[in-house]
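Slide 14.
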Amino acid sequence: MKQKLKYSIILLTIFVSVFGTSCKKWLDLQPQDGLTRQEYWKTKEQLDAAVMGCYASLLGGSSIPLSKYLFIWGELRGDMVVPGLEISSDDDEAKLSGLLKDEFDIMRTQIASTNTLVNWEAVYKT
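Slide 15: predicted structure.
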C-alpha cells in the first residue's frame, strides 16, 4: 500500500510538472531579421514610400530598367520581335558584342547562367 501511494505521488508530480507548465511564450518567436504583418505600413506615409519604391524600380533600380527586362524576358522570346542581324555561322556569333549576343541567346532559348540579361535583381529591389 505504501509502495502504491509512493508511485501515485511520483506519477502525480511528473504529470503536474509536465502538463502544469506553460510554454506558449517559448513557442511564439518573432523574426530577428524581418518584419511581421503587424509592423508593415502603420502610416499612410509608409505605404506611399512602398509604392514609390515599386515605381522607382520600374524606372531603373539597376543598370537596366525593369521595363526593359520585362520586354526581354517576354517579347524577345516570342515571335513579336525580329532581329535586325542574321547569324549564319559561328564567326558571326563571335563578332557580336556581349549584350547583343545575350539577346540572341534568349531569342534562341539558349539561356545560360552566364547570360547577363538573366538577372532578377531588378524585380526584387524596392
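Speaker note: The chain has a mean pLDDT of 75.
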